[in-house]
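Our platform keeps sequence and structure together, in a single record for each protein. Such a record has a labelled line for the sequence and another for the backbone structure tokens. The tokens are whole numbers drawn from a learned vocabulary of local backbone shapes. The remainder of this section carries one protein's record, kept here as part of the documentation:
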Amino acid sequence: MLEVRKSNHRGRAQHGWLQSRHTFSFGHYRDANQQGFSDLLVINDDHVSPGQGFGTHGHRDMEIFSYVLDGALEHKDSMGTGSVIRSGDVQLMSAGSGVQHSEFNHSAAEPVHFLQIWIVPNVRNAEPRYQQVHFTDAEKRGRLRQIISPEGEDGALAVRQDARVYAGLFHGAEESAELNVGPDRNVYVHVARGSVELNGERLEEGDGARIRDAGALRFAHGDHAEVLVFDLRPNELPTMPH
């Protein structure tokens, strides 16, 4: 059974230079019924104005990844990494024992639209690390491309958790895909843009869906849809490791 969270039910933050929607509790937005799902803690849908961004700040013991939809995001961190993340790029920063970083819109003229997602790790105080991979539209077109996994196989980024993330693009009657994660897994689906049918139920841009004891999932009849699928442990809420 799908438990759908509609786009307009998400939290909202408006800071002038930043327009953000929060799937789960974050910052000043608090909802006792939206505290994450399994090991998935944060999905922030961020629009950042040209030349603006998040100044240097710290994180620890969190797997943080950015998925750029439009524009370019400039990243700098205390590990010495400096990079620009563009549409199709996925960045994964494992904060581990502690890291400082900043994220700015790389463009002085165009906005950047990206998802920032946090997954709770399975170990504390690990060595911080940075990964970035580009996935072409062709790799995601009409299929679910694994972009994050525990072992980082097949070109995916390696996450410190029993979690897998897939990205897919679906448009028209010819493009569909199935994913069978097995009976003892939770799944969260986020529609980044467009709309798509998930097991026959229509999901619109910004919508999310919790699926417990997930089994088989079918994505079809997309309308310029881009989706992220999180294959997660069968826990209800995120818990930090001891």
Observations:
- The chain has one helix and 20 strands.
- The first strand starts at residue 2 and ends at 5.
- The chain has a mean pLDDT of 96.
- The CA atoms of residues 88 and 140 lie 10 Å apart.
